[in-house]
Design brief:
5 helices; about 50% helix; 6-stranded mixed sheet
Length: about 230
Amino acid sequence: MATQTSPSSEAARNRLVRFFGRYSDELEQIRALLQIRLEQLALAYCRRHKLPKEAVLVCTRVKSLNSVLNKLERRGWPDFERPAEVITDLIGARVVCWFVDDCLGMLRYISSSKHLTFESDVEDYITEPKPTGYRAIHLLAWISYDAVQGAQIESDQMLCEIQVRSKLQDAWGDLTHEFHYKAKALGLKDWSYEQRLSEIAERLAEEDLALMAIRDAYQALASRTRSR
């Protein structure tokens, strides 16, 4: 039996298709601009702390039309004029740091940027992990850009989601996304599995601390060697 589509959901689908058809190039340009802004901040942070530039990596993406459609369907098709009103991560970025203390350092650099304005309070899942053990820092920020309106250029802003996490936290997130996050989206949940995921995340958090301790020990050793 074919799934029935309500008039409101069909209207929302059509609105999204038109939006992506019209603004996909502009979304890609804003993504590229966000990539540049964050890479500049990462480079400044690495130079300030004498880290190789690979110590903080940035990746960005534009959410696909299918992903947006699926997300709004799960939410029961909320009413909107522009997709950004109900989807805060049309453009998203991930900042991955070698060490967990650099996550807070990068957060301070992002907050100091003149090109990014925080929309709301930062969600710090490193300090207070989710029950599954998920760890990262989430923030919403407006990025300023030049919008093309006909033959004119006008100043505009786009809301973006930025996630900051350590390399080990990123590995845990990538490995669990396919089978855990997508299962939850389908309403599937098993507490015993959630508990095991949390235990794995806790062990990785301990390794994050161990890596920082080894880093600090090597830096102290190098400093003593140079001062001789």
